[in-house]
Amino acid sequence: MSEASYHHLPVMVHDVVDLFGSVPPGTVVDATVGGGGHAEALLEAWSHLTVVGIDRDLDAVAAAAERLSVFGARAQVHHARFDDLANVMSELGHQGASGVLFDLGVSSPQLDRAERGFSHRREGPLDMRMNTSTTSGSRTAAELVNHESEAELARLVRELGDERYAARIARAIVAARPLATTTELAEVVRDAIPAPARRRGRHPATRTFQALRIAVNDELAILPGALDQAIELLVPGGRCVALAYHSGEDRIVKSRFRLAATGGCTCPAHLPCGCGAIPTVRLVHAGSRTPSPEETAANPRAASARLRAVERLAPGHLGTAREHGALHESEADARGDR
C-alpha cells in the first residue's frame, strides 16, 4: 500500500514532539508506526534523534517505509508486534532507546478500508486482524462471532467494549449465525439494543466492534509487557509516551507507569515511604493530557485520546518514590487524574 493511500492525521502530534525534545541523542522506537505521521514529525523537529518504527500491519509498514524514506539512515521500519520491541532493538544492535512511543488502537486507514473488516459502516468480511499475513495465527472476527459460546461473547463485549447490553447482543449474535459480513453483524447488534438507546451517541455497534477487534488482536493482553519492555529499554533521561483511546488501554498504561514511578511502594499515601521501594521513572505530568478543542473539531477520532508520559531516572539518582514525587492513586484521584 502506498503512503498516500494509508495517510492519516497523527493525534496530539505537537504534544508528542515536545515530549521528546529533551531526551538524549539516540533512537526513538515508534512501536505503532502506522502511516509514519508521528515518526515523520519527530525526525523533522529533532536532528538528534533517529527512529525505528515497528508495526504488525504489513500495509502500515510499507506506507511508513515509503513516507520515511526521505530521512535515509535516520529511519528504519520493521514488521513486528509492539511486544517484540526489545528483540527488534537487540537485533539492530541498539543497547537502549532515547524514547518509545505507543499510539494504541486502530488507525483511520484501517477503519476506512472495508476489506479489513474493522468498520461497522462499510460492508466487508469479518476479519479485524491487524496482521493479515498467513503466518500470524490470529483468529478472525468471523471465527469469534460464529464459534464462541454465548457466555464468552457476552463477556468479551461487556469487558472489552464497556457495553451494558452485552448479554442481549451475544444472544442475538448466536441466534443469527452464521454471520459473514460487517454490515450483517452491525444490523444484528443494532436490533439487539433497545430503541431508546440506539438513538443516543455513537452507532449502536461501535462498542461491540471495538471489543471484537481488541479480542482478535490480543491488544490488552500484550500491552503490559510491552510497556515494561519499553521502560526497561530507556536510557536515563529517555521517555516513554503512550496515547490510549480505550478506557482499558488507558488503565493499563496508568497502572504500569505508576508501578514504575513508585517502585511498587505500598506505604500509606499520607506517610513517608518506609518500604525502600525504588522508582525507575518519574511521571512527566500528573494524570493524562487530552487533545485541544481545536484538534477534536478538526479530527473527531482524536476526541477519546489520553496521553501519558514517563522519564527514565539515572541509576545514581534513584531515591524513594516520594522523593521523586510519584503520586499514589488516592493523591492522583484527588487531583483529577483519570
What can you tell me about this protein's structure?
The chain has 338 residues and is α/β, with parallel strands linked by helices. It has 16 helices and 7 strands. The protein has a 7-stranded mixed β-sheet with strand order 3-2-1-4-5-7-6, with helices on both faces. Strand 2, helix 4 (58-68) and strand 3 form a beta-alpha-beta unit. Helix 8 (150-161) crosses helix 9. The chain is globular.
Strand order of the largest sheet: 3-2-1-4-5-7-6
Major β-sheet profile? 7 strands, mixed
**What best-fitting shape do the alpha-carbon axes yield?**
globular
- Annotation field: number of helices: 16
Span of the ends, CA to CA:
38 Å
How is this structure best summarized?
It is built from 16 helices and seven strands. The chain has 338 residues and is α/β, with parallel strands linked by helices. Mean pLDDT is 89; it is low at 324-338.
Key phrases:
single chain, 338 residues, alpha/beta, 7-stranded mixed beta sheet, 16 helices, 42% helix
Layout: helices, strands, pairs:
Elements: H1 3-6, H2 13-20, E1 26-30, H3 37-45, E2 49-55, H4 58-68, E3 75-79, H5 85-91, E4 97-103, H6 108-112, H7 141-147, H8 150-161, H9 166-176, H10 182-192, H11 195-198, H12 206-216, H13 219-233, E5 234-244, H14 247-262, E6 281-283, H15 293-298, E7 306-312, H16 329-334
Parallel strand pairs: 1-2, 1-4, 2-3, 4-5
Antiparallel strand pairs: 5-7, 6-7
